[in-house]
Every structure is written in C-alpha cells, then in structure tokens.
C-alpha cells in the first residue's frame, strides 16, 4: 500500500474550498460546525481568495469568473473600491475570504444578513 505524502493531503484540505458548488458533496472539507449553512456565490470576474478579509493578507487562490462556489458567511473587512462599487463586505469560504465587490448579487453576494461570520 502506498502512502500519500502529508504535503499532498494538506494541500488538498487547504484548497477544498475551490471545488465548484455543484461538486461540494464530493469535497472533503465541511463548514466549521454542523449548524452552519452554505450558500452558492458566483464571481463576475476572477477574484483572489485571501487568508484574512484584507487585500494585504496572504494570497491562497483565484476563483474563476462565472463558476459557482460554496461560501459560508460574510464579514466586515478592508473597504474595497472597484468598477464603481465600494464595499467592506468579504465573503467567507472554508479557508479564506474574497471581497464581495467581485460577486454577482447584492452587497453580500446574495448571502442573507444573518450569515455573518
């Protein structure tokens, strides 16, 4: 039996949030608690995922425009202005955050107000 190096399994867990929402059932990652709900969000352009809700935080990955992704909550973070929109709302994924400025929908990327992180 072959062993999978720890680095590979760690990377897979770290990038689990990049699984498109339609494939979320196959993803090994799950919300922090069973009571947490998940929501589908769609970026209208490619958007970076950061470790914390700020542009200066560590870069984790890029979400592709037009793809559906599973988000868990929203939080206030650094204010971002782009394409004529200004917002301090950041969308929370399993391992990071992206500015809501880049997602389709309302100021919360269509997450309910009650979905605050």
Would you kindly provide a brief summary of this structure?
With 117 residues, the protein is mainly beta.
Give me the CATH fold name: SH3 type barrels
What is the H/E string? HEEEEEEE
What is the first-to-last residue Cα distance? 41 Å
The DSSP helix count reads: 1
CATH class: Mainly Beta
Strand order of the largest sheet: 5-6-7
Number of strands: 7
Profile the largest sheet.
Answer: 3 strands, antiparallel
Radius of gyration: 14 Å
> Architecture in CATH?
Roll
Total tally of structural domains: 1
SS-derived structural category = mainly beta
Shape: globular
State the helicity in percent bands. under 10%
The quaternary organization reads as: single chain
Q: What fraction strand?
A: 25-35%
What are the low-pLDDT stretches, counting only 5+ consecutive residues below 50?
1-35
Structure description:
By secondary structure, this protein is mostly beta strands. It has one domain: SH3 type barrels (Roll), CATH 2.30.30. Helices cover 8% and strands 31% of the residues. It has one helix at residues 6-14; strands spanning 39-41, 47-50, 59-63, 69-71, 73-82, 85-92, 97-99. A three-stranded antiparallel beta sheet has the order 5-6-7, with no helix packed on it. The chain has a two-stranded antiparallel ribbon with strand order 1-4. Strands 2-3 form a two-stranded antiparallel ribbon. The protein is globular, with a radius of gyration of 14 Å.
